[in-house]
Design goal:
CATH superfamily of the largest domain: NAD(P)-binding Rossmann-like Domain
Bound molecules: nicotinamide-adenine-dinucleotide
Largest sheet: 6 strands, parallel
CATH class of the largest domain: Alpha Beta
Radius of gyration: 19 Å
Distance between the termini: 32 Å
Helix content: 40-55%
Number of strands: 11
CATH architecture of the largest domain: 3-Layer(aba) Sandwich
Shape: globular
Oligomer: single chain
Strand content: 15-25%
Strand order of the largest sheet: 1-11-8-7-5-6
Length: 300
Amino acid sequence: MAARIIDGKAFAADVRGSVAQHVMKLKKEHDLTPGLAVVLVGEDAASEVYVRNKAKQTLEVGMNSYEHKLPADTTEETLLALIDRLNTDPAVHGILVQLPLPRHLDANLVITAIHPAKDVDGFHISNVGLLASGQKALVPCTPFGCLMLLRNEIGDLRGKTATVIGRSNIVGKPMAQLLLGADCSVTVVHRWSSNIAELVRASDIVVAAVGQPGLIQADWVKPGAVVIDVGINRVPAPDKGEYATKLVGDVQFDEVQKIAGAITPVPGGVGPMTIACLLANTVTACCRANGLPEPTGLTV
Ligand code: NAD
C-alpha cells in the first residue's frame, strides 16, 4: 500500500491559525501584540524572498513585523548595536538574523549577541544547551516543525527507533535532541558514517536533512516507517524545458512512498512548517517575557 502523503502546507496553515488565535487573545486580554524583528544584511536573492515571506506571514497572524535591511558592507559594530537595541525594545519579542551573513561577519558572534529569550531561531548556545539538557528552550524552527508533523502522524513517539541523517546545528543535531526528548532511541548519521542504509532500515522514523537529491532509496527504508524529508535541492527538469529546474528532497519520493507508512513531499512537506514554527516561537517568547501561560500545542 502506498504511503500517506503528509500535507505540511495544510498542517502549517493550522499552526498559523492557532498562532493567530493566541495573538488575538493576547491583544484582547492583555493589550499585547507579539513583535518579530527580522534582520537582513546584504542582497542575497533567496534570503530576500525568505524575509519577505516571514514578514507577510507575521502580519497575517496579527503580529507586528519589524524589518531591518542593512547593506552588505555593514560593520560588525553596527549590526551588534542594532541587535542591542532590539534586545531592549519591549515591542520586540523575537529577533531573527537571516543567515547566511556576508563573509566578513561572524555568525556565531552575532547569534550570541541576541538575548536568548528573544532567540526565536533557537540557535543561541543558551537555547542549544537548554534543549540538550531537556529544559525549556526556544527550539530551532525546522526540526520543531518535523517533530510536530511526526507527533501528528504517529501520536506518542516513546520507544520508537529514529535515524536522523545529517548533523548540522540548524537541523540534524536539534532534531536528534527533540527525538530523544520524545523518548525515541536515536541514531545520527552523517557524511562519514559507513552503514547508513542498515541503520535507516532499522528505524520507525527517518529524518533526512542532507542536501543530496535522492540519497535515501527505497531499499533503505523499513516497511511502514515515517519518512520526513527536510532536504531542498534544485535540480534540472529537462521535461519542463531546456533550462527549467525543480525542487526535490533527499529522498527518492516515488520509490520510497511505495514502502513507507507516511512521507513528506518536497515541496509542500517540511518547508511550510519552518515559518509556522517561527511564528509559534515568537508567541511563546512573548508569553514568557510577560509571565503569561504559554500557548497550548505551540511549544515542544
Ligand atoms: P548542512 O550542509 O549544514 O548539513 C548537511 C549534513 O548532511 C552534514 O551533517 C553532513 O555530514 C551530512 N551529509 C552530507 N553528505 C552525506 C551523505 N552522503 N550521507 C549522509 N550524510 C551526509 O545542511 P543543513 O543546513 O542541515 O540542510 C540540509 C538540507 O535541508 C538542505 O537541503 C537544506 O536546503 C534543507 N533545509 C530545509 C529547511 C526547510 O525549511 N525545509 C531548513 C533548513 C535546511
